[in-house]
Amino acid sequence: MIEMKQASFEYKKNQPIFQEVNWELSKGETLSILGPNGVGKTTLIKCLLGFQSLKSGNVLMEGIPISQYAPKDFFQRVSYVPQAKHIIFPYSVLDMVLLGRASSIGIYSKPSSKDMDIAKEAIRKVGIEHLTHCSTRQISGGQLQLVLMARAIVNQPEVLVLDEPESNLDMKNQLMILDLLERLREEMTLTIIINTHYPNHALRLGGKALLLGQNDQKDFGDAHQFINDDTIRRYFHVDSQMVEWREEEKKHQRIFPLRISKEAV
Ligand SMILES: Nc1ncnc2c1ncn2[C@@H]1O[C@H](COP(=O)(O)OP(=O)(O)OP(=O)(O)O)[C@@H](O)[C@H]1O
């Protein structure tokens, strides 16, 4: 459904950020992008959305390079959720979510009652009806992240791209975001691409993982196969312990960081 083929990028000549990255996702699959600070995860997302041009390679949706899509068509199908900490607007929650309908409403028109209903439905889907008329300046970081998720799904996109949506949130709010992503994936058959600092979140979401590391390290495959003590040491230079348990007939895995790896010192 969406893929990167032989994708390379550099900001400065001969200083590659990533090289020959390949991954592909089917409809309704999840991709978690993981790697240490500064390795190029956000840059890769910017290339995926066409905000930066690849040096070589391609991003394809349904087999067609994204450069061939009109931006309006592309962004109706692919929606982006930025980090909440960068957003400060004096809007109500409802207005903020309605902004997601801007491409359908037109610059000089007022939102119709249908637009209002669609926005309220998105607000209901993320579970924040009680905040509908609150100012986005007077809600918590976790609540604002949910507002941005509602804004992103208001046009019923096929692909949701999120840049560290759970960073800066407490444990409960992190779990709320992960629960919501799992629910949206099921209800809307959403394809989800998430940039995260938490290997455990990738394990919880399942699906695919793209690991990016220093010295052109990269791996792509099933999250449960590629996130393990060996890759955590090689990519993050941390010794870890994988723990497994069963709950309701399902096998779960989480990884605990133990210490900075001696190999890294
Ligand atoms: N606009 C830019 N111009 C030049 N270099 C940049 C630009 N944006 C980012 N970089 C550099 O590119 C590298 C990758 O940055 P990027 O933000 O993509 O990493 P990241 O993996 O998302 O980091 P983090 O995990 O800390 O958010 C870094 O060395 C960064 O300094």
Automatic annotation (TrEMBL):
Q: Name one Pfam family in it.
A: ABC_tran
Keyword Transport tagged: yes
Entry keywords, A to Z:
ATP-binding, Nucleotide-binding, Transport
- MF terms per GO, please? ATP binding; ATP hydrolysis activity
> Its domain of life?
Bacteria
Q: Where in this chain does the record put each ABC transporter domain?
A: 2-239
What's the protein called, per UniProt?
Answer: Iron complex transport system ATP-binding protein
Species this protein is from: Tindallia magadiensis
List the taxonomic lineage. Answer: Bacteria, Bacillati, Bacillota, Clostridia, Peptostreptococcales
